[in-house]
Structure formats: C-alpha cells, structure tokens
Amino acid sequence: MEAHLRHCDDCRDAAAEADAVAEGLTAAPASVLAALDKRLEGAARFEHLLPNVADLFDLSQNDARALLETIDKASSWADELAQGVWLCPVKPGPKVADAFTVLVKVEPGAVFPTHTHGSRERVLILEGGYLDVGGTEFWRGELDVREPGTTHSFTGLPGLGCICAAVMSPMAKEHE
C-alpha cells in the first residue's frame, strides 16, 4: 500500500484526508461528553436494556423503568445471599408470576455460590459482568441461559462487579 501511495496522487490525497478526519475524531467537544455523562447516570444507564428487562420479567416498559430506578437505592438490596452477593426480589408480570425473579448484585471479586439449576434460568447482565466457573465471561447486555441440571458458580469481574436480572422458571411438576 505504501508503494502505491508513493505513485498515486489521488490515493495519497484520499489517505491524507482520512488522516485529517481521524485526527478530528479523537477529541469530542465538552458539550457532547457532558450530555453523554448525563445519559449514563442513574437508571438512564439502563435505558437501552429496558425492552429486554420488560420482556424478561413480563412487565410494561414503565414498570421495568421503575424497577431499574430502584437499583441505586441501598434499601433495595436487603437480602445478602453470600459475602458481596445481594438480591432484590422482583414482582413480575403474569407470564412469569410463578418463577423466581430477582435482581442480583455481585460486588467485584465476590463469588455467587455454587448451585444446581432445578429448572431453566435466564440471566440478563445489566451492568459490569461476571466470570463463570467454566471460564466464560458474560458482559453487559448478554443473556446467560442455564438449562435444568446445570451446576455452576460465578465471580463478579475485578473492578466492575455485576448487576443482573434473573428469572428461574418454576420447577416442572412430575406427572403421575
């Protein structure tokens, strides 16, 4: 490519123009950064995940937004499952009313205890991420689905921790 640019005026001009554009992209105006900061504070930081949360818990988008507004309130995290692992019960909509529904907060480096799923579980990562005992990392916006019989634990990522939304389907009843 360098050899071509030495001999082609048109491509050399296009490359110089691309370099100039790239240099202009390295520094965003302060007003853009301030607007971005505002969109990323409080519950607004979850706005892009709102449809996923509403679907997971079978809630209206307004009810899902109200739920996400509770995440930063210390009083929402009353149930400590293990050191650095907190639960916030969620009242879901009718489609998942019989399921176990919670928000989970895992502090950086904290370990969610080893457990075996008796039914299907879906976990939507809302913030940060975690490292599963099997070595897979799950990050913001990803959905971790576990089938019945799956055994695992996970650790909040160093420096980030994790906040996620979880729905464990009701256990299937045995037919007589």
How is this structure best described in words?
The chain starts with a helix and ends in an 8-residue tail after the last strand. Helix 4 (50-57) packs across helix 5. It has 5 helices and 9 strands, in the order H-H-H-H-H-E-E-E-E-E-E-E-E-E. The mean pLDDT is 86. It has helices at 2-7, 9-25, 30-39, 50-57, 61-68, and strands at 79-82, 85-89, 100-106, 111-116, 121-132, 137-139, 143-146, 151-156, 162-168. It has 2 domains: 2-38, no CATH class; 45-168, Jelly Rolls, CATH 2.60.120. A hairpin with a 4-residue loop joins strand 5 and strand 6. Strands 1, 2, 3, 4, 5, 6, 7, 8 and 9 form a 9-stranded antiparallel beta sheet that branches. It has 176 residues and is an alpha+beta fold.
Low-confidence stretches: none
- CATH superfamily membership of the largest domain: Jelly Rolls
| CATH fold descriptor of the largest domain | Jelly Rolls
CATH class division of the largest domain: Mainly Beta
Task: Give the SSE string.
Answer: HHHHHEEEEEEEEE
Name the helicity range. 25-40%
Overall tally of structural domains: 2
- E-strand count: 9
Provide a count of the helices.
5
Head-to-tail CA distance between termini: 73 Å
Largest sheet, if any?
9 strands, antiparallel
CATH architectural grouping of the largest domain = Sandwich
Structural class: alpha+beta
Q: What proportion of the residues form beta strands (DSSP E)?
A: 25-35%
Task: Please tell me how large the radius of gyration is.
Answer: 22 Å
Estimate the mean pLDDT confidence.
86
Shape: elongated
